[in-house]
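Lest this sound abstract, we let one protein speak, letters for residues, whole numbers for local backbone shapes, and leave readers to judge:
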Amino acid sequence: MQRKIAAILAADVAQYSRLVAEDEEDALARLASSREVFDEFVGKAGGRVFNTAGDAVFAEFPSAVEAVRCAIDIQESLRTQNLGVPQRRQMLFRIGVTIGDVVERDGDLLGDGVNIAARLEGLAEPGGICVSRSVFEQVGNKISVPFRDIGAQEVKNIPQPVHAFVVDMAGTVAGEWRRAPGSRLAPPPKPAPRWRTPAAAAGVFLIAAAAALTFTKHSGGPAFAPVGLSPSDSAEAYAVLAKSGGVVQDARTAPELYHNARTFEARGDAASARRDYLALAELGTEALDAHLRFAALLRAQDGRAGAREAYDRLREATGSGAAALVHATLFDGAERRRRIEAFVAARPDFSPAQMLLADEYSDDRVGAQTIGDRRKEKAALAAFLAADAEGGLTPFFLDHSALAEWLERARRRHAALEAEHATARGAPAAQFMRSNAGWTVSVSLPEPAVALAWRLGETGEFSATGETAAIDQRTGRLMPNLSFDLPPDTPPSTLWIKYEDASSRAVGPFPVSFDPHRALVDGHRDLLERFWNNWAAFSPDGRLVYYTQLMSYRCAIAKAELGFDDKPPTVLPMPPCDERNPYSIPADAAPYLKAPAGLKAVSVRLTYSNGEQSKARVFRRQ
């Protein structure tokens, strides 16, 4: 499980049970059509639908602005769909939007953010949208629709009242509902003070940070005394505050500021949470869990670029390793991975970074993992767990329950990778098949690949095998040709095989031993075992018993015995193996025996060149 802060949209159909009871087939068809509208607009907004139980839809978004814009687009599209439908049969969705703390588990999201979004959806009118105060404060100046303040609302299973706003969607069913007593048109929120925004003036921010650092160094005053607390003292203080609850007045220490920020988040007061997170970050704390939560809040409110800008200033002003690491996580794709790898190389003492590095190579992050990805993830997880055994992780966490979650996830994933490593083959294998024209080498790879090359011996250039006309659905690219040919007189040697994995990273080269005699014997034995039903065959008139296949693959056979009915077996005459022309049968060799009169069946048993015996195979006369 992984915690994060996200903008959550919850929706369901008003009076859905009645619609189904009156006309189930029609209701289900229009629900499916409405779901397509949700999927289209959520995808365009950069969101993700994570649950669709019954008539409900839950989606997450990278920012509150995108979530509300998407909600408005959905309601407008659904309103158009309802045109011409009798009012009693119209399918009207209620939508709630909030920013909150969630836990991701197997692609689903759980937690306060989901619960509050669901309760806000219940406050919305059919065809309407209801948002929390934290969302209103973020979008009120960015979206050109009016909001109506309906005040603090008591909702089921949420201990604190939720201050809610509804979108005044003129011309819709929701826009025509009678105003609740005490509701009022909400003015746009006042612009946040410059120190609270991710685009705050650098001068103000840097002066404040410099003053804090100077004050700590020279006066030892109480405002920044917590910088001198040991990490264990801070974690213990935070644990006590978390149990006691409430908001600490005049918070100054790192535990107090973190506790307050978390409390404000739970209440939906994102502005106050942001203020206290910023004050905590300005202390230069190395508590990675606090920085990650602050970055998640910034990302939900201002998008990834805004959060990245804020953390760029923080790392420069405070010199905090945690701030520098979180700044690296706010980039995308390969750039994020490159920056995290560079941080780990530069700061080997900052052990929690190993967990974030492991995430970069995880199956969730890269999609289809390559063997190289799994090895790097496993190594990073091992380093993270080793740091825990040495007590090197606790100094970087204020909330030790968050560390416990990280450790549980790391141990589970490391154990899974260990099990895969114990059973999976990590190198290419080759099978050699001899024909009269030469050798065909068939390569099997341990993972999807986009290119394959080989070399015979220790020197020389590698030869690419080229591509086939088939597309590998695992990579989306043409499959490499997995076979190549060698001359019939190739001596014993080492083949070197390398390939490019699904990420186009070079893997190898790997040595594969080539012994022509052993390859010929093994190839013949494999064919004999796979096609044993051809060891013996009767002529059409039943007078002869042929063993042509045994003679063709004789290089794998030390002795072949054939028995007539219950009589003792006879050793079949075989010419010696000719490795230069292994499948040819000499002109003076007769690959058959005369069948005695009244013969009912023959049995054949082979002794291979390595001394092993085959099963006795029985062939009945027709």
